[in-house]
Specification:
Length: 314
């Protein structure tokens, strides 16, 4: 078993050579979200722009003995306005990432996906959990367990590509994606198995790039080598997956929470597919998970800056 938070520490260490990412922190009005932003700033991961009711942020800081000196605060009347103002900072070029504070995820995401003044791109917006599971050597990416409720095959193309791009931003040397279902054979009665097969064919045709992809695979033979051998699955992914694409939000949410509460895993979260990465953690998430989420946002922001500098990318 690995040391607690070892994988998250590796993510954070990757960021130490990067400049802090200017980050709009939407409504940091409780101790956990405000302290998370300040700790990320102290570690050099982000330069926070605190967006929320100034009086509430100041009161939260006093109650938690947190020092806000030198930090920019954009005053807003309430959480909806905080979300809109945080998005506006990105559109104005003042922030290269977003971080969720104590507002509801729906409030922040509504501002992000707004058609007129949001942060949409040609990609579907999707969420990735990056799980630090003590029994696994590498961090495990699970998608999508928080944004897309019942994704179509078309949606899953973007969800898969977003996750692959995240793994590359994390410097994963070989990205191996298992497309999960309840079984490892294609069954016309189980739509997720047919979609898995279609996605694999799209990988063959290079409609999706950057990873080894196989599916359908059941969870056991996706992450356990012995289970894959028992089922006689000949695949470079089976038993060795480091990215899991789930059939729908319900399956993904239950999988991620099972790992958290039954296997002692931490869950960092990030939303991809918008103009900038969005650090998105549960309000009950650990400090380590919040810091890892900031590190993920910083790594994705850096990967985007690098792609702009590199001819033929973007």
């Amino acid at each position: 078993m690995n040391a607690p938070h070892e994988k998250y520490q590796r993510l954070i260490d990757h960021c130490k050579s990067l400049p802090p990412t200017p980050t709009a922190v939407a409504h940091p009005c409780d101790p956990a979200s405000l302290e998370g932003a300040l700790q990320a700033a102290q570690m050099g991961l982000i330069t926070p722009l605190l967006v929320g009711p100034r009086a509430r942020i100041d009161a939260t800081a006093r109650a938690a003995a947190l020092d806000l000196s030198g930090l920019a605060i954009v005053d807003t009347p309430h959480s909806h306005a905080s979300a809109a103002a945080a998005v506006r900072l990105v559109r104005e070029g003042k922030a290269q990432a977003l971080m969720k504070g104590s507002l509801h995820t729906d409030e922040l995401m509504a501002a992000v996906v707004a058609r007129e003044d949001g942060l949409r791109t040609e990609r579907r917006v999707s969420h990735c959990y990056v799980m630090d599971v003590p029994s696994l050597e590498q961090a495990l990416i699970i998608t999508d367990a928080a944004v897309n409720i019942a994704p179509t095959l078309e949606d899953k193309v973007d969800i898969l590509q977003n996750a692959i791009d995240l793994a590359h931003a994390m410097h994963v040397p070989e990205v191996r994606v298992a497309i999960l279902s309840a079984m490892e054979t294609v069954n016309p009665k189980v739509p997720s198995t047919i979609e898995a097969a279609a996605l694999c064919k799209m990988v063959e045709r290079r409609q999706i790039t950057g990873a080894l992809v196989d599916g359908p695979l059941a969870l056991d033979n996706a992450i356990n080598v012995e289970a894959a051998k028992m089922k006689q699955i000949d695949s470079p992914v089976a038993g060795r997956a480091n990215v899991l694409l789930v059939p729908d939000l319900e399956a993904g949410n239950m999988l991620a929470k099972s790992l958290s509460f039954l296997a002692g895993a931490d869950a960092a979260g990030i939303v991809l597919g918008a103009r900038v990465p969005i650090a998105l953690t549960s309000r009950a998430g650990s400090v380590h998970a919040r810091l890892a989420s900031c590190a993920l946002a910083a790594l994705v922001a850096q990967a985007r800056r690098d792609s702009v500098k590199t001819p033929g990318k973007g």
